[in-house]
Amino acid sequence: MSVLGLSSTMQGKTVALLLGVGALTCVSAQTFTRLGACPSLGCVFPPDQASFLAGQYFDVRLEVHAPVNGTEAYNAGVPDQNFTFCIQASDDGDCQDVTTFFSVHDTEVDTYNFTYYEDLFAQDDDTPSVVNVAAKTYRGLALYTPGSYKAKLKYYNDWETVANWYVREPTKEKAAKNVILFIGDGMTQSMITAARLIGHKSINGVYQSLMQMDQMEALGHQMTHSIDSFITDSANSATALYSGKKSTVNALNVYADSSKDPFDDPKFETIAELFRRRTGGPIGMVSTAFITDATPAALCAHTRARDELAAIAYEYLYGPSAYTPDIYWPTSCEGPDVIFGAGAEQFIPGDGSPNGTDFYKAFASEGYQVVYNNTELQAAGNDSKTLGIFCTSNLAKWIDRNVYPENLVGLGNSPSGDGTDALDQPGLKQMTLKAIDILQERSKANDSGWFMMSEAASIDKMMHVLDYDRALGELLELDDTIKATMQHLKDIGEYENTLIVVTADHGHGFDVYGSADTKYLAAQASDRKKRSAIGVYQNSGLSGYTVEADSLPNNATVVYGAEGPNFPVNWAPRYAYVPGVVAFPDHREAYGINKTGPRLPATEGTDGSYEVNPYDQPHGYIINGSLPTDEAQGVHSLTDVSVFANGPGSEAFRGVYNSIDIFFKIADALALGRTSEDY
Ligand SMILES: *[C@@H]1O[C@H](CO)[C@@H](O)[C@H](O)[C@H]1NC(C)=O
Ligand SMILES: *[C@@H]1O[C@H](CO)[C@@H](O)[C@H](O)[C@H]1NC(C)=O
Ligand SMILES: *[C@@H]1O[C@H](CO)[C@@H](O)[C@H](O)[C@H]1NC(C)=O
Ligand SMILES: *[C@@H]1O[C@H](CO)[C@@H](O)[C@H](O)[C@H]1NC(C)=O
Ligand SMILES: *[C@@H]1O[C@H](CO)[C@@H](O)[C@H](O)[C@H]1NC(C)=O
Ligand SMILES: *[C@@H]1O[C@H](CO)[C@@H](O)[C@H](O)[C@H]1NC(C)=O
Ligand SMILES: *[C@@H]1O[C@H](CO)[C@@H](O)[C@H](O)[C@H]1NC(C)=O
Ligand SMILES: *[C@@H]1O[C@H](CO)[C@@H](O)[C@H](O)[C@H]1NC(C)=O
Ligand SMILES: [Zn+2]
């Protein structure tokens, strides 16, 4: 039992003030909850401990549950429809009914049922518990007065769920004009350390150069956990970073409610929506993933289900209320000025695009210039909104673009969907620098400044498939992008005005613990003997990646790949670093770079479970998995992640804090909070 798991249960118990006489047999279920962030039978969203930026929009959702069967069965499965909800603004004040407090009309009670499994036994036996629900939602509210509030749901006569809400005191002095938030998806400090080892030369223990991240003005750590699970995915972690609200795995800027519809869950406003609403300034999203993937999606989309990719593309262009016109939501990104990434599937007319339409055309008819390759990207004007989609799926990895360009051939991944290859793809650096030029030009009209997010998505994607070399290549590309960004900001005179924040959304349990003599490993016959090739402690030796190729003892394995300084000069030294992750499927390991493309460690066996891919690292030894056998890839891990900040407002990023604090720190640097409607 981890400390985090325990404390969330304890919090749950203090939150759920069950004053009823008939004591409820509280199920201690940790992993199969009836509804995350709702341990009692009365649910309040935003839930206990929610923090708000003054003036930030949010919805309120109330649910009363009556389990029909299972260990929580109550009230013969009849939910109380006469629940009340009031808000108390100070300890000695009245608790005012929600309609009075927010001056809104009351809403209708909605009733329905849902099912859930209480534990693995119930799942194996297929005996879900049935829960009847009575629910209400109030949309598009905001709190302006800083301080703490008690939001009280009263139900079943004398039961009460209290949610403590905090409206933080906003900063009124704007520190930064522009903000660029870099996300190294899945990036941990041990990956940064490993990237430094292979990309930067050291003489007798002294590095001759450092990562750009190593040289930022402020360093902090943030905690990545979800609201109802201690391991997060990229949707709810990005939600925390951009909206200041913890949520559930797969959720984008909503609290997950119990209804089926993935678009009706209670929303809250993102930093991108707020920046647009408060400043009118331009916003940008750049990613090496498909652009509707979770990390970019969390800037503008609102849904319980991150895999609703067509809807996410639709919400980028037209906003959430256009997608669900019967659900009121007062704000939107109003079409981000820059959208650069991959994922042509959502734009080419067909199965993946909104209603099967040509979504490139839809963007063009809203005034976007649309570009499809790096040549067009670099030639594009700086004054229009710009959509750049450079291939289907995810962008090619830095290693494949720069070291093994032949791997780009034969993929049939052109953004036009015509089945040709996307051979002229930009990297993170090319996209980010161009995005800055466009945002800068578009911010001139009202001197608004700009906000952008730039994501190195495939650090995570390559860690999932245990392709450590590609993951570190992506990380070095991110660092190179940060360095080039700082120089470019200096060149255009915006360096002193721009807050740069670099962080991750979660980690993978990666580290390096030695080196391997790959030649010796391949020559051994048995799996146990192959492991003798691993050198630990003094036998780990020195990095062969930064040694000049002609000084290597065995230059037959040399693979060049340097694009200027601070990338390895040799990606395949005989003595390779030995990495591992804590979470992996069955696989085979030989510690050499995979030259033919991203690795595929496990494949589906005849019984549907995942086994060693017989074609992967054929000279390696087998490592049995540490995951359930239905997992094909590694998974995310618990670790805190680093935060690096530079420029105006960067001091606020020092120390150890929660992921949600990143939102508040950025919002404060931009002075986006408002203590009244008209201030
Ligand atoms: C709700 O209250 C009304 C009177 O205010 C009562 O008639 C009704 O039976 C109550 N419903 C439930 C489900 O308790
Ligand atoms: C759940 O609701 C459906 C209708 O939406 C109904 O057909 C079904 O009987 C209900 N199940 C239970 C156990 O009440
Ligand atoms: C609850 O009732 C449903 C049928 O309405 C049944 O399928 C399910 O197995 C029951 N669950 C439990 C935990 O008894
Ligand atoms: C699809 O078309 C329907 C009806 O015209 C419209 O209401 C809906 O918003 C469209 N959805 C998308 C994703 O385009
Ligand atoms: C870039 O895209 C344009 C438009 O689709 C095309 O005409 C041009 O040939 C492409 N350039 C390269 C280098 O692929
Ligand atoms: C875009 O802005 C950059 C930086 O100011 C400039 O070098 C470039 O020429 C501009 N491009 C166009 C097409 O105006
Ligand atoms: C690279 O990965 C692919 C997919 O797993 C595999 O077929 C191939 O054998 C690998 N190559 C090496 C050198 O491990
Ligand atoms: C992997 O696990 C299987 C049992 O599932 C066992 O037979 C085999 O010896 C293990 N292999 C290694 C290399 O540990
Ligand atoms: Zn991931």
From TrEMBL:
Matching SMART domains, A to Z? alkPPc
Q: Where does Zn(2+) bind?
A: D185, D460, H464, D505, H506, H636
- What EC number(s) does its UniProt record assign? 3.1.3.1
* Pfam families assigned to the protein according to its UniProt record, in alphabetical order: Alk_phosphatase
- Provide the residue positions that the database annotates as binding Mg(2+): D185, D293, T295, E455
Catalytic residues identified in the record: S234
> InterPro entries attached here?
Alkaline_phosphatase, Alkaline_phosphatase_core_sf
What top-level branch of life does the organism fall under? Eukaryota
Q: How is the cofactor bound here?
A: Binds 1 Mg(2+) ion. Binds 2 Zn(2+) ions.
Query: Which Gene3D superfamilies does the record match to this protein?
Result: Alkaline Phosphatase, subunit A
Keyword Metal-binding on entry: yes
What are the required cofactors?
Mg(2+); Zn(2+)
Keywords for this protein = Magnesium, Metal-binding, Zinc
List GO molecular-function terms, semicolon-separated: alkaline phosphatase activity; metal ion binding
Q: Which family does the similarity line name? A: Belongs to the alkaline phosphatase family.
Name of the featured protein: alkaline phosphatase
Organism whose genome encodes this protein: Guyanagaster necrorhizus
Give the taxonomic lineage as stored in the record.
Eukaryota, Fungi, Dikarya, Basidiomycota, Agaricomycotina
